[in-house]
Amino acid sequence: FQYLKRFDQGCDLDAFWYEALSVEGSPVECLQLFLLHCGIVDPSWAELRNFTWFLNIQLRDCEASVFCNPDFVQDTLNGF
């Protein structure tokens, strides 16, 4: 949710890192963003769960990768 929220606001996601146990927004806002970005017009709860699960794993792996660390890559992969 935090990444999607910042993406919609046009923030630089390269500089953002998720902080465990941090809470932002309301459950309604969270659901609205998931519905907007999941890519399915009328998703089931299972489809929303799969979307959030997959997105979470991808973002966690991205944060853990040295190749996605802006301090390591400098400006060579800007926006990647």
UniProtKB/TrEMBL annotation:
GO terms for cellular component: cytosol; membrane; nucleolus. The keyword Glycosyltransferase does not apply. Keywords: Ligase. GO terms for molecular function: ATP hydrolysis activity; ligase activity; ubiquitin-protein transferase activity. It comes from the Eukaryota. Coiled coil: none annotated. One of its GO terms (biological process) is sprouting angiogenesis. The keyword Ligase applies. InterPro entries: RNF213. This is RN213 ligase. It comes from Oriolus oriolus (Eurasian golden oriole). The gene is Rnf213_2.
